[in-house]
Amino acid sequence: MSDQVGIAIVGVGRWGSHLLRNFLENPLARVVAVVDPNPDNLTRAAAQFGLDDRVVLTHDFQTALQIEGVEAVAIATPAETHFSLITAALKQKLHVLAEKPLTLSVAESVQLCRLADQQHHQLVIDHTYLFHPAVLRGKAVIQAQELGDLRYGYAARTHLSPVRSDVDALWDLAIHDIAIFNEWLGAMPCQVQAKGTAWLQTNLSDVVWVTLTYPSGFEATIHLCWLNPDKQRRLSVVGSQGTLTFDELSPESLSIQRGQLNQQDQQFIPMNQRYESLTLPPGEPLQQVCDHFLTCVRQNQPSNISSGWLGAALVQILVALSQSLQQGGQIVSLQPLSR
């Protein structure tokens, strides 16, 4: 392998354009090809990033796989296309960075992970929040037991549009907060539950309430809605010694609120209340994703942050939540995926 990893960017819509920018700027990457079935997207990308004739522009994915020098692909296409695209790339012995969710099916996700293992090539999923400085610092806070005994968690991800017509608010929004809770707790939920309501489109819930139960007994509740003008991107974990909050829309995005209750006779009196804003290093999370992927490729080692298997586990959680939603909120139990 040369000093630079030759990469093809597949899909240059909104998110794919961000991937293209990051890989063009990365000294360890060499963009060999850009693939998109929409010629307008190719024209726009070429003009926006000043791509010269050394970068092949093509609408045909199979053509890109055969281009000399392509060692890896970054896929930013709709989730329903992921299985066929990733399968083709892995069979060509190319490393893959794929946008989330990995697929829409547990069986397909597991099949892709097993194929990557068999091919001895890396499958990394772009769960960008796992590379966010606030999530990384928050994980360190919890691991250092600064919150004491963990009690419960809650999150809200709400806004007024965009409203999708292909999936509900659960599949559109939930994966981010589930990934963060899993990362902070160092565990996967063993039971899930979801309830929702649809107002705009039949059978596509506009608001969903998710409950995740972890083996320790910790429960997290997530409020998801694309029909709410109160825009929120906020997640908290409550412990016996304080509450850790990641508020993406706040200038102080990561904080700890301290305080305890002291019983005096029949009353509980708040004591030692204080607010701590945690300093975070600068950096774009997606840049960290790209750096990490290139390291995995160069070392041919699985991701220890956002592997294909982690992506498959998140798909399993979403599928179970969909099942609960369709069953009116029945609790669904989860078992670890078989490798």
From TrEMBL:
Matching InterPro entries: Gfo/Idh/MocA-like_OxRdtase_N, Gfo/Idh/MocA_Oxidoreductases, GFO_IDH_MocA-like_dom, NAD(P)-bd_dom_sf
Q: Which GO terms describe its molecular function?
A: nucleotide binding
The GFO/IDH/MocA-like oxidoreductase domain, residue ranges: 139-244
Q: Where is the Gfo/Idh/MocA-like oxidoreductase N-terminal domain?
A: 6-126
Q: What is this protein called?
A: Gfo/Idh/MocA family oxidoreductase
